[in-house]
Every structure is written in C-alpha cells, then in structure tokens.
Amino acid sequence: MTGLMAEKNREKSAGGAAGENPRRPCPCGSGKRYKACHGAGDDVIVTRPFEGLAAEPDLVAMREFLPSALAPLPLAKAGERPVRIATVLPGASAALVRPDGEILLGMQVQTRSGDLSADVAKALRWAQEAEPGTALPVVGPGLTGDVVRLQDVLDADAELDLVIHPDFAWWIPDDEPAPEITATVERANQVIMPTEAIGGDGVRAAYWVDTGSKAHLRWVRPEPEDALMAALARLSAAGELELGEGSRYAGAFRAHGLLVPVWDLDREMHAKEWGNPAAAFSTKLDQALAVTSDLTAAEHSARDALAGKQVTLR
C-alpha cells in the first residue's frame, strides 16, 4: 500500500457560527449535533469521509493503494484556476500551485485529521488563495473555522476521470528540471508497483497491481458492507466467487467505510485479459445483490469464512 497513514489528533473546530449554535447538525454528515461531533474537541474519526459522492470509490483507491494517478476535480463551481487531484505529490504535500496557476491536491499526505474529506477541502481553499509556485506541506493537524468538506464543493454526481501513470514524470512541469528534482522523481519511480485500471461493462474502481511476487485485483465497492458480504457469500456458496481460471479470492480490506475485495491473479496474464472476467463477475454480483431472501445455512457458513479474511486499514 502506498498511502501515508500517519494519525494526528484533531483540534477543536472554532467557528463563530458553530459556537453560536452548537445544536445544529454537524457538517460532516454524521447525523450528530455539531456539539457532539466535530465541535466536541476530541479525536473525531469520520469512518466514511467521502460518502454521498459518486467519486467515492476512486477517492478511496487514490488514498490507499494507487501509486501515481491524476484526475480533474469535478468542482460544483469552477474557479479561475484548474484543479486536479493526485495520489501523492512531491514531499507528500497536501497541495501545490504550479507556476501557471494549476492546483494539484494530494490524497496521500504527511499529516491528516480524522476527516479526510475536510482535509482535502481545506487544502483546496488554501491553494485557491496561494501564490503560483507555492507548496502546502501539511493540512493540519486540526481544522479551524467552519468545517467545509468535499461534499460541499464537488459535483456529487460526477465520477473521476482518472488517469493512471507508470511513473512520476508529471511531477516535473518543465523540460529542464533541476538535478535534485530529477533525482527525487527517480527515487519515487523505483518504488512504484505496476498498476492498471480494469475495464469492462459494469466494472469501475477495479485495479490490477503487480507487487513483484503476485498480481492482484483490488476492487473498491460502493455498497453497504452487510449487503455486499451477503452477496459475496451467496456467490461463494455457489462456487462462483472466483474471476475464472488463474484467479483466487484472497479476502477484503475495509478502507474509509468501503469494502475492497481482493483476488490473487495469474501474473503471466496481462491486466487487460481480466476485463471480461471482471465484467462477467460484476453481472453475477449485481444479481446476488438483488436477492432479498435470508441466507441459507451454506451461505451463512460462507459468510463467516469470508469475514475471517477481512482487515481494516487505519
């Protein structure tokens, strides 16, 4: 995994409006009152920070395991400067503003609060006011003032037009970079694991990665965990959990409120060869998700076995 997962304490949000009306709903979307959530002054962890955004699965992938990727950020109200979101920026910065004014926001950062959505929105606000050529090394710890989140500034129905790069050459904005910048890029390139998006009908946020010893398919799913686990259990009990010959279901991990099933794959097969099998599996999974009857005894047993193969990323 390439995500930089350093945990920092969140300081109390100190906005005048929030202080005047502590009974208002918290803007993080938790459903709690502000006073009992982000206004509490404690370590507040938003377990599903990108909920409600169509881009949620891609944002989770960019935060957790995609090495080098970029996408235009679908703002609800476009500003004067173009904005792109990236997996990681030089120095794991939260944001930088290029000399031409373009804003880049980083998902994998040095320091974070308990609300990734608010962190990225805060970095965006800083970058929109920063001078060209400025880098913002960290977001926090702590969010001051009124809490603004990605849900407040993005087009909620827009998915990310994600481009995965084989290296970090895009870090360099000109043709003749300084030697130290070139060396930084070369060091970063050495730790990249080959990664590609898996295409196919009904296939989204599914990524092939070669770790050097194994190849995997990591598929960020947007469904509620209970519904997804029940569907996977039905497929497992029916012997249909694999993606075809050369694949094996390895387990799943939770990341930012979503479940990410993982399959081991035959390293001799090219990433593009998994598009059709993934599309076929997507159809079967949709059918299993539509079933509303109780699990059978065999399916319950399969669900228990699958639950034993899950981990949670912190």
UniProtKB/TrEMBL annotation:
Domain of life according to the entry: Bacteria
Region described as Disordered: 1-25
Cross-referenced InterPro entries: DUF5926, SEC_C_motif
Start and end residues of each DUF5926 domain: 49-314
The protein, known as: DUF5926 family protein
